Amino acid sequence: MGRHGERIRLGAFHYISGHHVAAWRHPDAARDDRLEDYVRFARLAEEARFDAVFLADSVDVRLLHPDGAARKAHTGVTLFEPLTVLSALAAVTSRIGLIGTASTTFSDPFNLARQFASLDHISGGRAGWNLVTSNDPEAALNFGHAEPVPHARRYQRAEEFADVVRGLWDSFGDDAFPRDRESGVYVDLEKMHVLDHEGAHFRVRGPLNVPRPPQGHPVVVQAGSSEPGKELAARTAEVIFTAQQTLAEAQAFYADVKGRLVRHGRAPEHLKIMPGVFPVVGRTRAEAQAKFDQLQALLQPEVGFELLRVQLGVDLRGSDPDGPLPDLPATLASQSRQALVADLARRENLTIRQLYERIAGARGHWQLVGTAADIADQLEERFVNYGADGFNIMAPTLPGGLIDFIEGVVPELRRRDLFRTEYEGRTLRENLGLKRPENQFARSRRQAAE
Amino acid sequence: MGRHGERIRLGAFHYISGHHVAAWRHPDAARDDRLEDYVRFARLAEEARFDAVFLADSVDVRLLHPDGAARKAHTGVTLFEPLTVLSALAAVTSRIGLIGTASTTFSDPFNLARQFASLDHISGGRAGWNLVTSNDPEAALNFGHAEPVPHARRYQRAEEFADVVRGLWDSFGDDAFPRDRESGVYVDLEKMHVLDHEGAHFRVRGPLNVPRPPQGHPVVVQAGSSEPGKELAARTAEVIFTAQQTLAEAQAFYADVKGRLVRHGRAPEHLKIMPGVFPVVGRTRAEAQAKFDQLQALLQPEVGFELLRVQLGVDLRGSDPDGPLPDLPATLASQSRQALVADLARRENLTIRQLYERIAGARGHWQLVGTAADIADQLEERFVNYGADGFNIMAPTLPGGLIDFIEGVVPELRRRDLFRTEYEGRTLRENLGLKRPENQFARSRRQAAE
Questions:
Q1: What is A9-173+194-282+364-434's CATH topology?
Q2: Closest Cα of chain B to A270: distance in Å?
Q3: Scanning every residue of chain A, which has its alpha carbon at the shortest distance from the alpha carbon of B185?
Q4: What ranges do the domains of chain A cover?
Q5: pLDDT at A124
Q6: pLDDT tens for residues A197-225?
Q7: At a CB cut-off of 8 Å and minimum separation 6, what does A230 contact?
Q8: B350 touches chain A (CB under 8 A)
Q9: Is the pLDDT of residue B64 over 60?
Q10: Which of B132, B161, B157, B166 is nearest to B55 (CA)?
Q11: Is the ipTM, as predicted for this complex, more than 0.85?
Q12: In chain B, which residues have their Cβ closer than 8 Å to the Cβ of A185?
C-alpha cells in the first residue's frame, strides 16, 4: 500500500519543553534555555531519519495581558532566535534539515536572505526558511509600529519579500568562483547578477554577498491557510505546514493548494503538504490516554482562558467556561487560526473549557492519542488518500514525546514501507524530493538566447 | 616587567583566506566558504587561549567598480554572515569568546539584540557584538537608501541603537524564571521590564523575548576612531579594535579614550583597547621578510589601485603609481580610515605603489615583520607603555599565519609572563577582566529605594 513508492516525510517540530502548554510542568520535560537540549532533540530526529528539525518563532513576549493572573504560568515567554540555534545545530549534525521561522513583517530581506544563505552553506545544503507574516499586536510595538500591520498589507509585503529574497539567492551562478590561484581570477563577473529590485515595499540593489546556496535556494516553507496565504504558498512555497482536523478537510486543502500550482507553472510534486500532528503514544490505548490526562491535569484554568485569547483574539473571561463558545467579533488575530479553533468548537460542540483543554496540546492541530499502530493507521490513511505528503510531529513533551514517537510509530511506519530507513540525498531538498531551482538570471539569459 | 600583573589580551581576527589582500592566491591558504575552516581557526585560537575569535562583516559585495579590470581578482566579494558562523562555532568550542560585527545602520535593534542574546545563551556567555556603522555606498543601496547615510546621522542612530539593545538585554532579571513545576509559576513578572523606548530613530516597546544573557550583556566592541566614534565608545564600548602605527599615536589614542570614560562614570579598566596587528613571523628576520615578499608578489597592481579607492574613497588610476599621493578631496568614505591611510603615506613619504603595497596586508593596521622575539618586543613595548591592553591578530594567511603566531609569538609572550596559559573565567567578559553590568531596571529600583 502506498503512493507509487512515495513515502511519508517527517518534520520534528521543536517547541521549548514540548507542544502541550503545560509540558514544562511535566517531570520528564527538558528546560527551554539550554543548547544541549536542542542538540539532543536534533540528534534523536536525525538518528530516526526525519527530514528536518523545525523551529517556530515569535518576536515578542507571548501571552502578555493587562491582567497578569495567567501570565506567570506560561512558557513561551522567551524563545531563542531560530537562526542562531539552527546554525549551532548545523555544526553538530550532518544530514537532517534545519528549518527556521522568520517573519517578513519585521525583518529586512537583504539581512534575512544572507543569514539563510549562510546557514545553507554552513550546513552543506540543509537550510529551510519558514516564511511567515506577524499579526501579534505586541510584536508590532517592538518594531516602531503603533498597531498591528493589517492582514492584506502583511501579505503584499510577504509576496514582495519572497521575490527579493529568492532573487538575492541567485546573485551568483553556481560556478561563479573559479578561485584560480595561478591566473589570479577569483570571481567570474559574468556570473554575478544585480537584482535591482524596486517595488512598493522594498528597494534592494544586490548582489547578495554570499555565494549561491548549495541547494540553489534554501527550502521555502509556509504555514498560511488564508486565501492570500494559499496564493503566496502556491507561487513560492515548497513545503506547507498546515493544520486540518479531518480527512475530508485535509483532502480539500490538499487538492485546493496543489490545484493552484499549475497556474504558476509548477507541478504538484513541487510542493509538499505536511500538517502538524500532536501524537500521544502509549503501549496500550489506556496508557496513551493516561499520559494525555496527566498533561491535561497540569493545565491551569487561567492558562486555558489566556490560550483562547491568543488563538481567537478575543478575551472570553467572564463567559461561563462550561457554556458554548459565543459568536466572535472580527479581530486582527490571524483569521485562519481563529477560524480553525472556532470551527473545532462548533463541529464537536465543545464548551469553552473543553475547547481550551482540546487545544492546549496541539493548539488547533491534529491530535492523536493511541498505540503506535493506531497512530500509524491514521497517518497512513491521510497519506495514501492524498490528505498529506508528510507530517510535522509536535511531541507533547520533549524529549520524551519525541522518543515515544520514534520508538513506537517510526518502526510501525517502516514495517509498512511508509518511511525511509536511510537518507536518500545529501541536502534537505533532495530528501524532500524537491527539485533544485534554476538560477533566475541564468534562465533569463538562456531564454533570451533561445 | 608588566603592568601590575595585568596581561595582554588577544583576539583572533578571522578574514577569509587571510588578511593580506592576495592571501587567497597563497598555496597554503584555506578557502573562504567552508565551515570546517572556520572551525579549525577557532579551535586553534582556543587551544592557544586567545580571548576571542573576531569576525568582520560587510553588507554588500565589496570592491565593486564600474571598470571591472580589478574586480575579478578580489576576495572579500562574499562573506558568510557572522552570527550564523559564530553560532556554529559556539557548538564546537567551549571557552573562546565569539565576537561578530553587525551594523547599526542597516539592522533592526530588536532582531539584533535577540540574536546576540541567543548567541550568548547558546555559547554559555561567550558572545561579543562589534557595533559598527556602515558607510559603503553600495551597502546603502541594498537597504532602500538612494545614497549613503551621512556620518553624523549614522552616529546618532548608533547611539540610540546601542541604548535600545542594552535596554532590551535587561528585559528580565537574572533570576526572573523560577520555573517551579509544583506551583506552576514559570516566570516572576516583577522581574520582567518593559523598555518603552521612544527616540528620534526607534520606537521599541519590549520586553525582549529572550532571558537576560549569561554575561548580563554580550561584550560591546567598537572600532570607530573619529570624534563621534570615540565618544560613542567611551559611553558604551568595552573593547575597542583600533589601528595605530606608532607608539606615540597609540599612547595618544589610549589616553584620549580612557580619559573620556570618567565623564560617563566609568573606570579605565572598563574598556580594553586592542589595536589590530598584522604579524609576519619567521625563524629569522630574513625568513619573515621572504614570507612577506612572497605575498606581496601575489598582489596584482589593479587590485592595489582598487584597494586605495576603497580605503580613501578616491579613484587614483591615471596618477603616476611611482609619484606621491595627491591631495585628497573630502568624500563620504570613513573619515578616520581615509586619514589613517593618507597620514601613513605622508609620514613615510610613500609613492602610490608603495602605499598600496604597504596596506595590502594590514590595511592601515600595524604591520610587524620579524622573528617571534622581535614581534613580542614590539607588543610588549606597546603594552607596558599603555599604548594597548591587547591586540587583535590579523594573520597574513589562514590558517598558516595564525599557526606561525601561536607557535612562535605566544610562547615568547608566556616566557615574559605577558600572556595566560589557562583561561581565568568561564565567560568572555570574565576572561577580558570586564565587570558584569547591573540590570538597568534593577538599578533604578534599587536607587529609588535608597
A1: TIM Barrel (3.20.20)
A2: 28
A3: A73
A4: 9-173+194-282+364-434
A5: 98
A6: 999 999 999 999 999 999 999 999 998 77
A7: A224, A256, A257, A260
A8: no
A9: no
A10: B132
A11: yes
A12: 72-73
